[in-house]
Amino acid sequence: MDSKVNEDSESLINIKETKGWFEYQPSYDGTIFHINSLGAKIFGFNSPDDVIGKKVNELYAHPLFRKFLN
Fold first, then answer.
1. Verdict on whether the full-model pTM lies above 0.90
2. What is the DSSP letter of 55?
């Protein structure tokens, strides 16, 4: 059963990566703890590891307005 769940999970991840699904998950305080490769590229980073740990408002907000979001 566990191997089937793992297979299904891997298949879903592969579909998301190849079909262009942008996905990320922030914590309650806005810190990104998961993002897929496409999401990292959209935000201008080379890999998900470069984005994980950043705050969502650092990525979305116009630089002039970021200081008001904290």
1. no
2. B
* Residue with more model confidence, 27 or 10: 27
CA dihedral 60, 62, 65, 68 (to 10 degrees): 10
Of 47, 46, 43, nearest to 58 by C-alpha is: 43
Residue 50 maps to a domain: yes
CB 22 within 8 A of CB 39: yes
Element (H, E) at 33: strand 32-35
% of the chain exceeding 90 in pLDDT: 29
Q: Smallest Cα–Cα separation from 43: which of 27, 23, 28, 16?
A: 23
Domain range for 51: 21-70
